[in-house]
Design goal:
This protein is α+β, with helices and mostly antiparallel strands and about 110 residues long. The protein contains three helices and six strands. The protein has one domain. Strand 3 and strand 4 form a beta hairpin.
Length: about 110
Amino acid sequence: MKSLTLIALIAMSASFAQAECEQAAQVTAKVIRAEPISMTECRLRVSVIRWQPSMMCGLDRGEIDNEGIEIGMVNGHDCEYTAEMKTRLENGTILIRNKAGVIVFD
């Protein structure tokens, strides 16, 4: 009975930790395009070369394929896709799902 209670407590704490964690992955990718999604935000569509999700709270590869990486805009209408972002993606960078629920650079 004690072992069953211990297993239940471990399972409950693991599920609570999963609900509270920040999803993340290390990714190497090539940018396909930057596209506006609103008056203030753009999305990078990428071709993933390498994907390593966090062991504690991984971000699924399919999520970036479906959602892309959100970035800001400059000058009111241009996607803020910089040379630094390109370099980070080509060399490997960390992506997270932020508190607003979107995938962004860490």
